[in-house]
Write a structure and sequence with these properties.
Elements lengths: L2 E2 L5 E2 L3 E6 L3 H14 L4 H21 L3 E9 L2 E8 L21 H7 L4 E6 L4 E8 L3
Antiparallel strand pairs: 1-2, 3-4, 4-5, 5-7, 6-7
Helix pairs in contact: 1-2, 2-3
Length: 137
């Protein structure tokens, strides 16, 4: 996956790599580093890293044990895509905090507040979580 600059040339992604439970910590560090290098303000980079990490953890726990993560620049936005390895139909992201006795759902709920846009769609291998943040904000 790559973006296109105004002259029509392909722009390589900031990050494009597989991940699983053994590479989670290193992947998270690399994401944080690439977000900082992109010019995203430090507090926004931490919040966006958190949101992406929630996607990584969900893919490991519920999506076949891992997947692929990409981070790209799209104009004045950064777009992160986390795709797991289990074909799952997209579902509605939580809009309210799950009740205290619920076993899950908090991570994606928190992630929605840590980026400017978030959505789920079907991917090539499995479920794809797409997160976006404005560079200028």
């Amino acid at each position: 996956m790559s973006s296109v600059d105004p002259a029509g040339r392909g722009i390589p992604p900031l990050l494009d790599q597989p991940f699983d439970s053994t590479s989670l910590a290193g992947t998270r560090r690399l994401i944080r580093q690439r977000l900082a290098e992109s010019g995203l303000q430090p507090d926004r980079a931490e919040a966006f890293t958190f949101a992406i990490n929630e996607g990584l953890i969900n893919a490991i726990m519920h999506g076949g044990g891992g997947g692929d993560v990409t981070v790209e620049r799209a104009g004045e936005r950064l777009v992160a895509t986390v795709e797991d390895r289990r074909p799952t139909p997209p579902f509605a992201l939580p809009t309210r905090l799950p009740p205290p006795d619920a076993l899950g759902g908090r991570g994606l709920w928190l992630a929605t507040g840590s980026c400017d846009a978030i959505r789920l769609e079907s991917g090539r291998q499995g479920l794809r979580l797409i997160l976006e943040v404005d560079l200028a904000a």
